[in-house]
Amino acid sequence: MKRIAVLTSGGDSPGMNAAIRAVVRTAIYNNIDIYGVKRGYSGLIHGEFIKMNLGSVADIIQRGGTILHTSRCQEFYTDEGREKAVAKLRANRIDGLVVIGGDGTFRGALELEKRQIPVIGIPGTIDNDIACTDLTIGFDTTVNTVVDAINKIRDTATSLERIFVIEVMGRDSGFITLAAGLAGGAESILIPEIPVDINTVVDNIERGIKRGKRHSIILVAEGIGDVRTIAQKITELSGLDTRLSILGYIQRGGTPTASDRILASQMGAEAVRLLLSGSSGKMVGIIGNKLESFDIELVITQNKQIDNNEYNLARMLSI
Ligand code: F6P
Fold it and tell me: What is the mean pLDDT of the chain?
C-alpha cells in the first residue's frame, strides 16, 4: 500500500477535522502518500483528489465541520455512480480509502469493498446511532452543546416560571437527548426508543409543581415527531405557560471537546494502521475505552440499543 485517501461523508460532526488530521499524519509518518477527497462520495465520482501534507492539516484539530467538505450524494446510490467512483480511485492509483461518517457512509463503503477497493470506516456522526462502538466522533461535543442550551433556557424558564419543550437532533435515535437530558437534569425525556404517554409528562409536571418546582424542561428527540403538537398538547392538558425551543443546527457545529479530539485522533491513526496491515471492510469502534474493529456488514445490520439503566437513572433523578 503506497497511496491512500480519506473522505468525510453525510452530516458533518465536530471532531471530523481531528480525525482527518490523524489519518493524514499517521499515513505520512508511515511514508504513505495521502490524498483528501473533497465532498465525500460526490468528490470520488468527480475525481476531486487533493494531495495532503503535514501542513494541510495544521491548525484544524480545534475546528468543527470538515475541511474536506461533505455531501449526501444521490448519484452514489446508483451502480453507475459507484463504478465511476471506482474508476477514479483506480485512475488516481489509490490503494485504500478511509471514510469518516455514519450509517449511509458505511453502506457506501461496502459497495466499494465489493468492488475490491480496500476501505476502513471511522464513525463520525453527532447522533451516536452506530452499532459496535460506544461513541461516535462528535457526540460528546453535541451533548455538551445541548446541555449548555438547557442551562441557558433554564435561567429564563425559572424566571418566568414556564414549561420549556426543547427539540434535540438525532434523526431516528434518542442518544443525544438521553445523554443531554441526564446531564442537564431535564424533568422529562422523550425519545423514539421508549414511548411515553403525554399524560405522564403532564402528571410529572404537576407533581413537580405540587412540591414547589417553578419550571420544567421537557427534552424531545426530533425522531419523536412533530414537537409543536407535543408542546401544544402539554399547554392544553396542563393549562401552563409553555414555550418551545428548537435547537437546530447549532448542535452540529462548534469546537470539538477534548474527548472528541482524543477519540478522533485514536480512531484516525487506527484506521490507517488497519489499512496498512491489509484489513478491509472494517469499522474502528471503541468499546469500554478500547479500540476494536468490526465488519462494516455487521455494523450496518445491527441496531444500537439505548441504555435502559441510563434512561431509568435520568427518570429516577428527575422526580
Ligand atoms: O445525522 C446527523 C444529523 O444532524 C441528524 O441529527 C439530523 O436528523 C440530520 O443530520 C439532518 O440532516 P440534514 O442537515 O442533511 O438535513
Answer: 97
- Of all protein residues, whose CA lies closest to atom 1 belonging to ligand 1? 11
Specify the pTM: 0.98
- Is the per-residue pLDDT at 319 higher than 90? no
Instruction: Find, among 207, 219, 217, the residue nearest to 157 by Cα.
Output: 217
Write down the catalytic residue from 59, 79, 127, 172: 127
Contact 314, 121 (CB under 8 A): no
Report the alpha-carbon distance of residue 21 to residue 267 in Å, rounded. Answer: 11
Tens digit of pLDDT for each residue in 243-263? Answer: 999 999 999 999 999 999 999
DSSP helix/strand/coil, 252 = helix
CATH 3.40.50.460, the chain: domain bounds: 140-252
Q: What is the mean pLDDT of residues 9-29?
A: 98
**pLDDT at residue 298 in the model:** 98
What CATH architecture is 3-138+256-299? 3-Layer(aba) Sandwich (3.40)
For 34-67, how does the pLDDT look when each residue is reduced to its tens digit (9 = 90+)? 999 999 999 999 999 999 999 999 999 999 999 9
Q: How far is the CA of 181 from the centre of ligand 1 (A)?
A: 20
Question: Which of 72, 73, 127 is the pocket-test mutation for ligand 1 (most atoms within 8 Å of CB)?
Answer: 127
Task: Evaluate whether the domain defined by 140-252 bears CATH number 3.40.50.460.
Answer: yes
**Could you tell which of 39, 66, 74, 126 is best to mutate to test the pocket of ligand 1, judged by most ligand atoms within 8 Å of the CB?**
126
Q: Is 12 a catalytic residue?
A: no
The DSSP result for 147-203, as a single string, is HHHHHHHHHHHHHHT-EEEEEE--TT--HHHHHHHHHHT-SEEEBTTB---HHHHHH
